[in-house]
Amino acid sequence: MMEFFQKMKGTTKSPPMTSLLEIFLSWAGGIAGISTVVFINDYYVSDTGRLLVIASFGASAVLIFGAIKSPLEKPRNLVGGHIISALVGVTIFKLLSPCMWLAAGVAVGTAIAAMHATKTLHPPAGATSLIAVIGGAKINAMGYFYVLMPVCAGALILLVVALIFNNIPKTRRYPEYWI
Question: What is the DSSP string of the chain?
Answer without folding.
Answer: -HHHHHGGG-SSPPPPPPPHHHHHHHHHHHHHHHHHHHHHHHHHSGGGSSTT--THHHHHHHHHHH-TT-GGGSHIIIIIHHHHHHHHHHHHHHHHTTSHHHHHHHHHHHHHHHHHHTT---THHHHHHHHHHHS-HHHHHHTTHHIIIIIIHHHHHHHHHHHHHHTSSTT--S-S---
